[in-house]
User: Fold these one by one.
Assistant:
Number 1:
Amino acid sequence: MNEVLLVIEFHLDSRSGVSPYLQIVQQVRQAMRLGLLHDGDQLPTVKEVVAQLAINPNTVLKAYRELEHEGLASARPGVGTFITGSLGGESLAAHGPLRRALQGWISKARRAGLDDESIEALFQSSFRSDAQEDIA
Amino acid sequence: MIVFGWRQFRSQATVGLAGLVVVAIVLAVTGPHLVNVYDTAVAACKASGGQSSACTNPVTATYKGVQIAVMALVLVVPALIGMFWGAPLIAHELETGTFRLAWTQSVSRRRWLFVKLGLVGLASMVVAGALSLMATWWASPLDKVNQNRFSAGSFALHGFVPAGHAVFAFALAATVGLLMRRTLPAMAVTLAGFIAVRLGVTYWLRPHYMSPVTTTLPLTASNTGFQLNGPMGAPGTASLAAQAPNLPNALVSGSNIVDKAGQSPTSAYLLHKCPEMVSGGPPTGTLKTSNGGLFSGHSAAVQAPANVQNAFNQCITTLSSKYHEVVTYQPASRFWTFQTIETALFVVLALALAGGCAWWVRHRVS
Amino acid sequence: MSAVLSAHGLGKRYGRRWALSECDLDIPAGHVVGLVGPNGAGKTTLLHLAVGLLTPSAGSIDVLGNRPSDNPAQLARVGFVAQDTPTYARLTVDDHLAMGAHMNPGWDADVARRRIEDLDLDPKQKAGTLSGGQRAQLALTLAVAKRPEFLILDEPVASLDPLARREFLQTLMEVVVEQGVSVLLSSHLVADLERVCDYLVVLVSSRVQVAGEVDELLSSHHRLTGPRHDVSSLPSDQHVIEESHTDRQSTLLVRCDGPVLDPSWTVEQLDLEDLVLAYMGQADAGTRRRRPSRDADADADADADAKITKLDVSR
């Protein structure tokens, strides 16, 4: 195998119930959010991804097309697929007040006597019911 | 494909070649001495023309071990080539599944088959032919002494006919291997089939490659035997036995005692014409001829008492006016013609088998 | 897109037994196609018909637009790796590559050499001493280096350990990207096919049960759970593949062309394994119905057990 500078490695969780191409999209988004991927970085080629994951090339193509569709990446024919824009650090930084409010709520929940699992469950059910209201 | 066919065959070819080299060395080392012995024996026996057993024995006794070994080799090598080169040729690929690899390359099955058959078939003719020609060269002093190379047991060990036998055995083995799909059973069936064909050709076909020559000889006391079969005291059944004349290097089919119309004398006729032969005296020993092998001797006749001798001589004189000996044979001069005919016969059989393989491979194998 | 393999009423008979019957397929090019089914279903028969090692007893089959045959031009377009990856045990890796070079006009020696180097195979090693995974990779190299348009593999990873299996599929996918070949591979392990295949053919009891793009199959099949229903009351565009009922509850596996509108149903997505299992069960139920009813339950249990062990459920 040639040595290539890979900025990101994907992994597949076959038990997560999320389709493979979506997992790739999510991992790219996550990496961008965490500041691991910047504008202009090249995503691994389709060949590199399938050689590592042993998945169908169409899955990777579908993921990269989805990223293009969301405006997060763009394909340069013959060269590769590159990140455009960012979801990175500054977004998180811009949400500083939100983060502090969340940390405050967590402290309140702990003082009320909830353990970690209950806090997570409370959050998840509120989050989901909120999302369903959006759909309805 | 030719290169790959050779690569597959390489180790077997090496064994064959090594064997040939070993044999060549042994023959080259012992050959000159054998010639020497012969020359010495013949020179010393100029008077008897070098044919009496006192002259021939030294020659036939030299290198007895090598004689047997060489004779055995030339006899079995065609069959061995068939079994070890032919049987696995296709059967092994069918057994191990490698035919699924070979038949999905960009080469048609027929080409694949023809290259394999052609390459190894040619090699088998070369190896068997070289071996038998070397052996024939080496055994020429013995042949001059025994003078029986045309006989049933000797013909196939001389000249180039083993090449024909070998390529036939090879083609037979490959075909059987293709049909049975397994190497070891194919080897056994091939051996049995090969032996059957060789015996059939030797005893039923070969005497008829060309119309045999016949020659007529008068009955004499030295070439005729009077036989009585039956219990002691009773007359029994009488018959005449003929000894074939000494026809060096000829293939004698048989000799019969017949009259001008071609009829053999009946027992009743013989008993009527030669009553003295019935009364008294032990039966005369039958004179036998021996036909076989590289080393043959002549067996001696039994000496009878004088009165029986006289009765016998008279009997023969009486009979010879009506009956004579007719000998059917292929003359020695036809030896190489027969070699060519038989080689061609086996090569044609081999080609027919190869054609059968090609058809089977194309249409039937799954 | 043209069809890479199409079959009409294809059947193959051995004596009185039909190893494959009434097979209709139209597999488009540009896919990695999984052929899945239990042992004895006819997968190997279908693949051998596709490469010309067998001739049909009924119907017809076309590969890349031509009848599969002995013709060198046709043979050059299709690469094949047989079950148990046969190789010449006494010949070396180099010998095998030389064979490929001599017997295939389209042979790409660079591709072959690079693959062997990547695999760290000793060119002088005899094929009989290679591990199962290495032999499978060698066989794949031989099939791939002749640059075929269509690659057919018969259970290539069935006897490989998990690591060798993963490496083989990685290599295979790399080849698909590099050369753009269409692939047809058979397996009785649905888990592996899930990752690499985007088109699926389910073969059970010598018949094609279902065939189609994986995405389309997954979006058109659902598990419906709800109160006890009479199956005949379902809309006509919903076809029941598998059903089971208790007193109060029905669980159905259906294929439907439109959305499920009945609100009493809970509709769930399926994964490929569930889908394949359902079609296998359906085929099995078909054969079981023909047996005498006395021992139906015992037979059904035994069959179900056999199916499950064969399917190597990884979860």
Number 2:
Amino acid sequence: MSQHARSVSEQQFYLPSSGWWGNLRVIGLAVGVIAAAVSALLAAGNETQLYYSWLVAFLFFLSIGLGSLFFVLIHHASKAGWGIVVRRLAECTAACLPALLLLFVPVYLGRADLYHWTDAEAVAHDHVLQNKVAYLNVGGFVVRALVYFALWSFLALLFLRLSRRQDATADERLSRQMIRWSGPAILIFALTLTFASFDWIMSLDPHWYSTIFGVYFFAGSVVACFAFLSVITLTLQQAGCLRDVLTQEHFHDLGKLLFAFTVFWAYIAFSQFLLIWYGNLPEETSFFFGRLQGGWLAVSRLLAVGHFVIPFFFLMPRSVKRRRPLLLAGAAWMLLMHWLDLYWLVMPNLHGEGPRFSLLDLTCMLAVGGLFLAVLGTLLRSGALVPIRDPRLLESLSFENS
Amino acid sequence: MAQSSDNAYHDPLSGRAPLIVGGHDFHSLTEAVAAPLERKTPLGWWLFFIPSLAMLGLFGLSIGWLFWEGTGIWGLNNPVNWGFAIVNFVFWVGIGHAGTLISAILFLFRQKWRTSINRAAEAMTIFAVMCALTFPGIHVGRVWVAYWMFPLPNQMAMWPNFRSPLIWDVFAVSIYGTVSLMFWYVGLIPDLATVRDRAKTHLRRLIYGIFALGWRGSHRAWLHYERAYLLLAGLATPLVLSVHSVVSMDFAVAQLPGWHTTIFPPYFVAGAIFSGFAMVITLMVICRVAFKMEDIITVRHMENMAKITLLTGSMVGYAYGIEFFIAWYSSNPYEFGVFVNRAFGDYAWAYWIMVSCNVISPQIFWFKKARTTMAILFVVSIFVNIGMWFERFVIVASSLHHDFLPSSWDYYSATFWDFASLIGSFGLFFTMFCLFCRFLPMVATAEVKTVLPGADPHAGEERIRIEPGAATVRPATEGAG
Amino acid sequence: MAVIDLLVPKLPDTEVYGALARFPTTRALYRACEQVRDAGYTRWDAHTPFPVHGLERAMGLPSSKLPYIVLATGLGGAALGFLLQTWVHTSAYPLVISGKPLLAWPAFIPVTFELGVLGAALGAVIGMLALNKLPMYYHPLFRSRAFERVTDDGFFISIEAWDPRFDLDKTVALLRASGAEEVEIIPGERSAVAGGGAEVEGGRG
């Protein structure tokens, strides 16, 4: 026989009960709570900075969760085979979305600082904002937020539940059910993500608008998802799980998708920029005007180079995508760049002259991140890391790139 | 092109049926695809070819008359100074994109089912781009200086305006045509070699042999060939996105309400793929019956195309919705006015045709029965193409006729020559497609062979074995999460 | 150098070109390739109607260098495009258009990108043809009637006579032993000039 069969021990399908990953829920919870307390302390007298920093952190982990949900949905809709080994990790990441409702509360509390349209006084003197009152009002904002989280939670938990049930019953009908749900789920996903990005990011500057904005946030979320999946699978492998389950072939594919969506993000970002630059209409250029001056110009350039040019050439060669340390570095870099992208979207509304990095940026990331990872750790512990009875698991395990 | 087996025959999930049915082996597949080329021309072919040729004649006539009389023969006026020509251009470029999507993007996503239809789809792309490129060429008014579009050094020391999306179009669409042609030809080389080796007459062997470049099926050659194919697929994908984005920028860089909106690039790309897939469905429904290839272009292929049609149609519907919402949200009265006018103004009839054909009719594809019934596929695909033509018409005519100044408003009515150029362009397309079906292998034979069961040398070998774990294995908890 | 020299391979003047063996299945071909590779042959090739997955491993071939060529031509095309536009708009024919700066780099991106893709695509196609030494309309293997199946359903291995390990009897025996259904001796240049035909040694290996 020219090819030897690869054997995989079932032990690799489960999280170890000790170590960083095994204790992630406790570590995450501790870090999260402490960081939240520190943030609250630091923010005394400077709440505005807290709310802005918290918003960036919240959006970062929200985008990872939403991107992972998209991965699960599109995987089922396209009946893809290779990604089954990473699907459970994406399902668990998406299932952290319900917890983000709790982490949304500070955003709601900070609405007066974040969103100028909540100020009735300001609206009374601004006819543009008056025209938007039917959409930009606090009641609508809250109701929509609850609807988004309700739908996201429903979808994420549905897919995780069906998938976990298949672990126990090996029922093929569950696969078909998930495939049937994936179509309508994608529609719901697209609309909720778009309007959430309008509500939470675009309305930071309520005079500005862009029809592509939902797509822009979506592109960033998918990049973040693949980067995050790469990082957690590679670090899980270092902890001993999934060693023989995920091979170079799977990482090659994760790398390819990370590359492709990085290029897609750049395409969307550039389309938005080029059209607004070309038309030169003041109601649109206000977005870029501040971001291409002063301290923000350097950040914009860094974003263009770091979020596109560097990963474009770094992730292009086949050999990089197949070498674990290199892919890990690339994925970690993309997560950093995605954070910078969100920072660049949000912060110019607070600091017009240039970026003013504050300790709160770090503590808020630790707070939101710690709690997010705590939930993720709990979910990963409570079952297999891979859909062990998916009918096409063997196909995914033996997957080979051409 | 060779990819690892996806166990299509051993698939435990019955939703993925075998790709090629009818128990074909390599030789019978070669026979099925090459035999139509070697038979005498069937009567049915003439029944399609003669009317197509007549429409092509009409095209030639309308272009000739246009060059003689000028663009006044069309219904253009102020402010609607761009009419059928640009609509037809965008329409045909859009149709071309599905071919590249099937060839390149589905290849990158390892969707093996593409192998039955990609040859015909790529051919469709090239012919659609040919139709598309005629319109910018003929609609410029001073056709005798059309070469000014190209960066050629001249005695006036003038250069084209590279900052204009109209020049971006020239580069984008002609490069798209060139790359598609190369991609299609590279894919054809092994199949032309097949026809060459089967040729009974000296003339056939000579002609097919010249274009087959002496291909011998050497694996050292296949190695470079496959790498080139993968690279071309990887290049064609961003090319497709960029070409229709550039086409959309013809409109989006302007300041006209209804045109200037940032979502145009991805929205146009989704729309292009949508209309292109509809055209592929239309053509394949006919061809698979006419050339007796139902075993190779199976119901599963048609169903997958219907799903993509539904997906891209939903993207187009999403864009309509977001455009309308932001037009209101922007609190810009001109922007919102354009959208209200589209739905209820002078061109409301065109708008509602567009919405019912593009948004409503593809919804039937949520139902498996509709996706797998040829008659429904055919009818819906025609509706989608009509709807997508009207989408471009609505964008051009309704935005232009009702812009900022009421004193400028005017209605655009198409003349006989406008319609002649539209119908004539279909003549060009179908004439070329008929010739393609008659003289070239319609199915990418070498590629389809790679998805047959005998193609994988390692089929059936055990590749992976899961060993039961030790006592530390934690059982899966039911319904957790 | 005449054009005809590009289309026709330069072959040594021998009686025999080499041995051609046909195999019934891709699996048989794969195993046979491994055996030929392990026996130390270098001037040989496998011929199939479609690319057989993984055969380059069985043959011990290095991966293609085409990606480097394509990267170079792609970047070259893009650079050319950007430089052309920059030169035209800042030096050759500078015009202030819609109040934008002369070096309006955002507006230069589309053409730059398209020319980059064109350069890369031309590099891929022409590079592939050059690496494959195509077009090559004349090749000794076409002398074999059995070889016509190579574009239909035949899987072949050919070993050239000027391979250092080539020995007519031993090579034919190896091919038969590794599963060939038919082994054929392809006449060389000297023999073809004399109008010789091909000897077919049939029989299952």
